[in-house]
Amino acid sequence: MICKGLEAIEQIAQEVLSKSGEDAVIILQGDLAAGKTTLVKAIAKALGVQEAVTSPTFSLQQCYGENLFHYDIYNQGLEQFMALGLFEELEKPGLHMVEWGDASLMQLLKDAGFKVVQVEIEKRDKERCYRIGNA
After folding, report:
1. Rounded CA gap, 55 and 113, in Å?
2. What's the N-to-C CA distance of the chain in angstroms?
3. Which whole-number Å values give the CA distances from 93 to 6, 69, 72, in the listed order?
4. Most C-beta atoms within 10 A of its C-beta, which of 52, 95, 118, 127?
5. CA 1 – CA 22 distance, rounded (Å)
6. Alpha carbon 16 to its chain's center
7. How many beta carbons lie within 10 A of that of residue 112, not counting itself?
8. Angle at 128 between CA 126 and CA 133, to 5 degrees
9. Are 79 and 95 in contact (CB under 8 A)?
10. What is the pLDDT of residues 7-30, one digit of tens each?
11. Which residues in the chain come in under a pLDDT of 70?
């Protein structure tokens, strides 16, 4: 587990990228306001993405360039994610950042042969603690 203040978010982004490689599904877990979208912003910056990164809470998916995809299944849930065909989107080459993914989604991904990295974020006073590993 890595515990750092937000000033070290670029270091955390590099750690996630070193675990994921160029093609992976990264499951982001943590309470509301834990910093899931903040981490996606840092990863986008590390990858050279110039456009603004915003939470896809209501749109379900945001695409940044050709190889960074950002999903949020909090409001709609896994069933809606599947019904809309977004599971198939995960087959595109690149990094797929999924906020609010759960054990069911991780199992589906593993069964389908995806590389899955799990990032758990815990907010503590002035820092965040990150547990990064293969799911």
Report:
1. 27
2. 15
3. 29, 10, 19
4. 95
5. 23
6. 10
7. 12
8. 170
9. no
10. 999 999 999 999 998 899 999 999
11. 57-59, 75, 77-78, 82-85, 135
